[in-house]
Automatic annotation (TrEMBL):
Residue span(s) of domain Transglycosylase SLT: 72-181
Domain of life: Bacteria
Organism: Caldithrix abyssi
Protein's name in the database: Transglycosylase SLT domain-containing protein
Signal peptide: 1-24
Amino acid sequence: MIRLFLWTSALLLFVGLSACRNRADNPSSLAADDSLRTLIRQRIEQKMELDRMRLKLLESGLGREILKYKPIIKKYSKRYGFDWRLIAAQIVQESGFRIKARSHKGASGLMQLMPQTAREISRELDIQYIMRNPRENITAGIYHLHKQYRLFPNADRNNRVKLALASYNAGAGRVFDAQDIARYYKRPPNVWENVRPYLAMLKKTDWQLHLQVWPSGKPRFGYFYGYNETINYVENIWSMYQTYRHIF
């Protein structure tokens, strides 16, 4: 904080001296000088706010849990090509880093994996205690997100991650169906912003649209009513991730 204060004081002094010289030479530069000082103050306030958020998080129980599991998260995030801070944000959204978290649907662990998914990953990775061991749960969860990521090879990096998160939460079929609707409306199907609103059009009451999109007259992977949860899931993780990028 002392270093930040000294840096801030020096910068404002430099701007002030420059402004004085500019005014002497060119009075019309006054507005530009004021705008520069305003911008500098805004940047300083933003940095100080981030410092406060960082301190508050790191001193909290959640912050301690993130740092506790950081090595295993970083190890497998790197292996599968993710920023570890994205995975940390996902775990916060999934379970709040509560080891014994369990959903009403039966999902368990830090990464809230369903039993069937855990059994599949157990065979693929040859690990046995995904539902009981938090480190194995993290390993399996990152691997599962990577599998979803591979389903959207034509999306750019950010959209690919968002589509993978939606698939992790709702199942890939829901995302595929929403992409079909995007194609019907001639919108690029590999952009999350395009796919997101069509998740809400997979309800039975949208049957007239379904008749236009699918020969069977209904979504290929069935009707879907959890669209608000999935949309919020992706948006919350992405927002948290942007914050964590500045904090960690």
